[in-house]
């Protein structure tokens, strides 16, 4: 997730950088053990489904087409999917089983993993398996454990985003599980959301499977079609039932999760998009693209978006370019990802330097809990010398061109004046050119009042090479392809 840089961590500084290896990633042997354990749990659920269908031999043979994926517990999901296969071809049932993979456990595992990784794009397959083991192969319970473990604040049962993700995840899972009627099964589950309680009770006793078959047959269309439109409000019921089942689920979290950093980088990316939207377009294309990509980090004494704007304007005003810059029409995605990755390590280094009891994993979880807003925490309300030391660790970790200067500036930034200027211009609106000029004058004068030298130095020849190597390292650390030196070079 993040590695402590021994050479840079001098004195009280704790400077973190990209890990040499994927910290927290399980070994191949550990992954195979988790997969085997999950297959055993699925096999147990299949045995329970066999017991329920034992008195109905005509239906039992359809269990080979079943899957654990669904909106109820794993056993009920298997029974319902088997009954759906029977409802799709009630006469002979031959078409439902032709070419079907009889390895129910493996197909269910593939479907469950596809469900979680589709619902949570930042999850890797092996992480999904670990959450499913904790949830006893229950897909919605596993999803709730992920939400709790990763502090996913945007998750709202019944919201449009959650409903859309649930529908897509169900369809992808059914395809991955190789069910003979994937689209139909996903549609049936969505159609029956409002009557899940009744369906769950009917499956538990299974006295009259004919009634369930009749219900499923009515819900099964002749051709694949989308689920009915009026079911959005009923999609909250599956999560309520899952909450009841999750009371007995394990609550052990997966520490040092590799994808936690990807979640945090995604959050940071959103803040940079907001900052770009607030900067005046003309000035951004002609001047501030350089300072944003080199020094526009999201750590500081304000909220993340304000920090990006303040750091960008301050660096441009204090260390202007040596020559005229060309107008930039497009901001490269890889260049933006580089400053985002550097901001991440700066934030982690700031927290770990300020609080010696924190490790990198705890720092990242803290950042997710607080939406990266250091201004709302005790970390930005301590002694100025301690803050400057923490900001210096952040600047070193983020490869700021002038780490000492930035640490001194952020430690003594004139907060009320800056916030007053931004508030007068509109908290969410695009800044005017006049406001940017006033901010530049205020920030540069605040920095000069600290007595630090602002003499501009000629860039050394090695800097360009260092910048390219840093881009490659940061790109590799977030799993992206390296950009060519010609395209990644900053003006």
Structure, explained:
- By secondary structure, the chain is mainly alpha-helical.
- It is built from 23 helices and 2 strands.
- The protein folds into 2 domains: 28-248, no CATH class; 276-488, no CATH class.
- It has helices spanning 28-53, 57-60, 74-88, 94-97, 104-119, 125-134, 139-149, 160-176, 182-191, 196-205, 209-219, 237-245, 258-278, 281-295, 304-318, 333-354, 360-370, 384-397, 403-411, 415-424, 433-448, 462-477, 485-488, and strands spanning 3-4, 16-17.
- The protein is elongated and about 85 Å long.
Q: How would a crystallographer describe the biggest sheet?
A: 2 strands, antiparallel
Proportion of helical residues: 55-70%
Spatial strand sequence of the major β-sheet: 1-2
Radius of gyration: 28 Å
Summed up, the domain count is 2
Kindly estimate the percentage of residues that lie in beta strands according to DSSP.
under 5%
Number of helices: 23
SSE-based structural type: mainly alpha
Question: Ranges with pLDDT <50 over ≥5 residues?
Answer: 92-99, 221-231, 453-491
Q: What spatial form do the alpha-carbon principal axes imply?
A: elongated
Arithmetic mean of pLDDT: 78
End-to-end C-alpha gap: 31 Å
Order of helices and strands: EEHHHHHHHHHHHHHHHHHHHHHHH
How many β-strands, per DSSP? Answer: 2
InterPro entries: PIR2-like_helical (IPR046527)
Protein name: PIR2-like helical domain-containing protein
Pfam family, one: PIR2-like_helical
Domain PIR2-like helical: 60-145, 267-376
């Amino acid at each position: 997730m993040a590695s402590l840089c021994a050479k840079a961590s001098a004195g009280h500084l704790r400077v973190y950088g990209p890990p040499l290896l994927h910290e927290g990633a399980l070994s191949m042997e550990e992954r195979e053990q988790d997969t085997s354990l999950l297959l055993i749990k699925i096999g147990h659920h299949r045995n329970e489904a066999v017991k329920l269908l034992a008195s109905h031999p005509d239906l039992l043979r359809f269990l080979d087409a079943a899957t654990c994926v669904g909106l109820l517990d794993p056993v009920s999901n298997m029974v319902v999917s088997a009954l759906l296969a029977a409802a799709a071809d009630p006469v002979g049932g031959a078409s439902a089983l032709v070419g079907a993979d009889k390895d129910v456990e493996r197909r269910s595992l593939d479907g469950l993993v596809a469900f979680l990784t589709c619902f949570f794009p930042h999850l890797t397959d092996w992480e999904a398996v670990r959450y499913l083991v904790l949830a006893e192969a229950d897909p919605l319970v596993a999803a709730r454990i992920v939400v709790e473990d990763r502090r996913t604040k945007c998750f709202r049962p019944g919201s449009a985003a959650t409903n859309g993700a649930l529908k897509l995840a169900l369809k992808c899972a059914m395809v991955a599980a190789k069910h003979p009627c994937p689209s139909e099964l996903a549609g049936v589950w969505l159609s029956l959301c409002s009557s899940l309680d009744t369906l769950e009770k009917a499956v538990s006793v299974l006295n009259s499977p004919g009634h369930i078959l009749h219900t499923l047959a009515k819900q099964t269309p002749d051709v694949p079609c989308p689920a009915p439109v009026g079911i959005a409000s009923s999609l909250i019921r599956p999560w309520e039932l899952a909450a009841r089942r999750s009371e007995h689920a394990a609550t052990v979290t997966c520490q040092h999760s590799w994808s936690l950093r990807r979640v945090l980088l995604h959050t940071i990316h959103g803040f940079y998009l907001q900052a770009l939207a607030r900067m005046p377009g003309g000035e951004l294309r002609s001047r501030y693209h350089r300072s944003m990509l080199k020094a526009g980090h999201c750590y500081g004494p304000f909220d993340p978006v304000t920090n990006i704007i303040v750091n960008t304007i301050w660096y441009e005003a204090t260390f202007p370019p040596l020559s005229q810059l060309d107008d930039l029409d497009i901001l490269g995605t890889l260049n933006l990802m580089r400053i985002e990755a550097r901001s991440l390590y700066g934030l982690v280094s700031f927290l770990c330097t300020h609080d010696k009891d924190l490790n990198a994993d705890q720092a990242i979880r803290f950042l997710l809990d607080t939406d990266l807003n250091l201004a709302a925490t005790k970390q930005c309300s301590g002694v100025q010398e301690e803050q400057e030391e923490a900001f210096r660790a952040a600047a070193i970790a983020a490869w700021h061109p002038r780490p000492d200067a930035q640490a001194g500036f952020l430690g003594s930034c004139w907060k009320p004046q800056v916030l007053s200027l931004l508030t007068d211009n509109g908290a969410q609106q695009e800044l005017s050119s006049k406001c940017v000029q006033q901010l530049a004058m205020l920030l540069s004068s605040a920095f000069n009042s600290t007595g630090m030298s602002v003499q501009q130095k000629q860039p050394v020849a090695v800097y360009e090479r260092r910048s390219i190597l840093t881009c490659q390292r940061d790109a590799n650390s977030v799993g992206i392809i390296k950009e060519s030196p010609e395209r990644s070079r900053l003006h």
